TrEMBL record:
Residues 590-641 form the SpaA-like prealbumin fold domain. Pfam families: Gram_pos_anchor, GramPos_pilinBB, GramPos_pilinD1, GramPos_pilinD3, SpaA. The lineage of its organism: Bacteria, Bacillati, Bacillota, Tissierellia, Tissierellales. Residues 665-695 form the Gram-positive cocci surface proteins LPxTG domain. Residues 1-24 form the signal peptide. Residues 35-184 form the Gram-positive pilin subunit D1 N-terminal domain. Residues 230-343 form the Gram-positive pilin backbone subunit 2 Cna-B-like domain. Keywords: Cell wall, Membrane, Peptidoglycan-anchor, Secreted, Signal, Transmembrane, Transmembrane helix. Residues 467-496 are annotated as: Disordered. It comes from Anaerococcus porci. This is Isopeptide-forming domain-containing fimbrial protein.
Length: 704
């Protein structure tokens, strides 16, 4: 009996323990609050997988602070600063059954209750507040850009957050509440390359290939270099992937071309998926010969924002190789994608030539005209033609100047250690690079500046780069590597077929340029045919003046003067031809625009702007007193062929400044090759000789 009573009491104690335990818990943490004094909002960053799997009604959250967000949400979850939130109250005219947390028209700001989150969140004071409230993000004021400076907040849950104040859980009113809106982060992807369908000849394949189009994995890979003659149209493709659930306020593509390329206005086509966008409706377009800026409008942004899947935007356009291209120097066009959750100001750096002294000055200012104390910006000098960082070995030597490829400028000058990113010298508000090549273009790329700004590059005169910074928290723009286009040329020297002291350089020889098999002739369309014709007529006249001199005068002062006049006329013609030749084609010898090159007083002639490949010369007119060539000398245009090699003939007779040229020889003749009195004399002489021979034969017969 004693054991039965003991067993009963033990069982009763166990039952009472189970029944009382919930109440004991409640009594252990009773809520005596009568209002929710504060609401702290914490922005939680999750991976896309974690966000997708997260249950917003997950047990364990009761309005109080979550002790360990990694345990509650996901091991990779983290709280992030720099996100702007506002507390808003439901308008008085909205009925309880009409509340829509996503309808902005139903809500109004609570005065003074807004700001950026810190690593501990953002605390709102809510003492005495009653009714429906919401916490809403304002991404236009957020400063968060991710660890790489290029991310934007995309997918979300519990955004906006709906609250009923005071906040009540099972224990009563929560005095200091905590809420946890969640986001993922992502950034767009971009790449640029030649369009897949192209007939361009590759001279350097790079790592990405020339016929693959834009491929995101090739974003930072070296692109191909192709060769193309003046007038060739080069097709490009740019693809940009906009992440799902994006909320962009800015989406802008800014393309700048080096001087040897001309953007073909009207060629730009923009697609979202398979659908064409409409200019002036979906995007605004600024076009110049140097490139374009295409910016999505509000209508266009709606076609890429808030989508459940990533959206692909494709840009296609063409550029034309023009006569400003320089032999063996690549031409490139550099595109940047400027994006963010707020309006932006950033632009792509302009390719800029140095001044006549080989100098390039960077000037930087702020949109409000003021540098803050201690503010700095760091730039690196980039070869706009090759896309490579400029090195000291790339420059001409300048006395008392030490080249620095990366420089820091700022509000005030200070000493430092060149090349040390932690303690660089600061050169004041401007810096000048020296010893630059005058036939190349350069870019100053801003690699570091005060946080919260965008750089607007303004076009200026040669030798000057101007940068204006605007206060902004948009991510850094995306800048894929760019493919390049190059062409070349060849120099020649016309001589007799002698060597040493007997070698003579011959003026007045004229040549056609043909394709490799000699069947087609180089034809040049011209922007100003009259200017080229005038220069060619002048050159022809100077050649005729020299040819009309006697052999004795040609060897004397008159000949020297006449040759100098030919040289000057040839130089003027070359300049007029290069400036006005806007397209090479292959046609017939009879074409009125067929290219004819003429040797000057030193026997020199040349051709520029051809694609790398094999070609031939066909002599149109031989120098006076020399036999015309019946063959077609072959020549090759390739990298370095314009400068020539020392096994060829020195281009300038007196120095090596202009490199070397392929020697084209002619044989001197003693019998005139043309009709007229000269031919008649030889015909008469021939008849006389034949008559004399016949007479002798008859006389010999009679004697026999």
């Amino acid at each position: 009996m004693k054991h039965k009573i003991l067993s009963f009491l033990t069982a009763l104690a166990m039952v009472l323990g189970i029944v009382v335990q919930p109440f004991a818990k409640a009594n252990a943490a009773p809520s005596n609050a009568t209002t929710t004094n504060t609401v702290t909002v914490h922005k939680i960053l999750l991976t896309e997988t974690a966000l997708k799997n997260h249950d917003v009604n997950k047990k364990g959250y009761d309005g109080n602070k979550i002790p360990d967000i990694g345990t509650f949400f996901d091991a990779e979850a983290k709280e992030i600063p720099g996100v702007y939130f506002k507390l808003q109250k439901l308008k008085a005219n909205i009925q309880e059954d009409q509340v829509d947390v996503n309808n902005n028209d139903q809500w109004e700001d609570v005065n003074g209750q807004e700001g950026l989150t810190t690593e501990d969140g953002l605390k709102f004071t809510t003492t005495g507040f009653e009714g429906k409230y919401r916490i809403v993000e304002d991404l236009t004021k957020s400063t968060y850009k991710g660890e790489d400076g290029q991310s934007v907040l995309t997918g979300s849950k519990a955004v906006p957050t709906l609250l009923t104040l005071p906040l009540v859980n099972e224990d009563g009113i929560v005095a200091d509440a905590h809420v946890y809106p969640k986001n993922t982060e992502n950034k767009p992807e971009i790449d640029k390359n030649f369009a897949k369908e192209n007939d361009l000849k590759v001279v350097e394949d790079g790592e990405a290939g020339s016929k693959v189009g834009a491929v995101y994995e090739n974003y930072q890979k070296k692109k191909a270099t192709v060769t193309a003659e003046i007038g060739k149209e080069v097709p490009y493709e740019v693809k940009t992937k906009i992440p799902a659930n994006s909320k962009l306020k800015t989406a802008k593509w800014d393309d700048k071309m080096t001087s040897g390329l001309t953007f073909k206005k009207g060629s730009l086509l923009i697609k979202v998926g398979q659908d064409n966008l409409e200019k002036n409706t979906d995007y605004k377009l600024e076009e110049t010969d140097e490139g374009f800026v295409a910016s999505l409008t509000e209508t266009g942004l709606k076609k890429v924002n808030e989508k459940t899947e990533a959206v692909e935007v494709t840009l296609t356009y063409t550029a034309t190789v023009n006569s400003k291209s320089v032999v063996d120097i690549p031409e490139a066009n550099d595109i940047m994608f400027h994006y963010g959750n707020k309006p932006g100001f950033g632009t792509t750096p302009y390719p800029t030539k140095p001044n006549e002294n080989g100098e390039l000055t960077i000037n930087k200012s702020w949109d409000d005209g003021e540098w803050a104390e201690g503010e700095t910006a760091t730039f690196k000098l980039v070869d706009a033609n090759t896309g490579e960082d400029v090195k000291e070995s790339d420059l001409d030597k300048v006395d008392n100047y030490t080249f620095e490829g990366t420089v820091t400028i700022g509000s005030t000058s200070r000493d430092g250690i060149p090349g040390n990113p932690k303690n660089p010298p600061v050169y004041g508000k401007t810096y000048t690079w020296k010893g630059l090549k005058k036939d190349k273009q350069y870019k100053a790329v801003e690699i570091a500046t005060t946080s919260g700004s965008e750089s607007e590059f303004k076009k200026g005169a040669d030798g000057t780069i101007t940068v204006v910074n605007h206060r902004s928290d948009n991510p850094k723009p995306l800048n894929p590597t760019e493919p390049k286009v190059v062409n070349g040329g060849k120099k020649f020297v016309k001589t007799n077929n002698k060597s040493g002291d007997q070698q003579e350089r011959l003026a007045g020889a004229e040549f056609y340029i043909t394709n490799e098999d000699g069947s087609k002739y180089l034809v040049a369309a011209k922007t100003s045919p009259e200017a080229v014709k005038t220069a060619k007529d002048t050159l022809n006249q100077k050649v005729a003046d020299y040819n009309n001199l006697s052999a004795e005068d040609q060897k004397g002062d008159k000949g020297t003067t006449a040759k100098a006049a030919i040289d000057k006329a040839q130089e003027d013609y070359n300049k007029a031809f290069k400036e006005n030749a806007n397209a090479y084609t292959w046609g017939e010898k009879a074409d009125e625009n067929v290219v004819v090159v003429t040797s000057d007083g030193q026997g020199r002639f040349e051709i520029q702007g051809l694609a790398y490949g094999k070609y031939k010369l066909e002599e149109k007119t031989a120098p006076k007193g020399y036999a015309a060539r019946n063959d077609k000398p072959e020549f090759t245009v390739e990298k370095g062929s314009y400068a020539g090699v020392d096994s060829e003939l020195q281009y300038n007779k007196d120095n090596k400044d202009a490199g070397y040229g392929k020697q084209i020889e002619n044989k001197k003749v003693s019998i005139p090759q043309t009709g007229g009195i000269g031919s008649l004399i030889f015909v008469v002489a021939g008849i006389a000789i034949m008559g004399l021979a016949a007479y002798k034969i008859q006389a010999n017969k009679k004697e026999a």
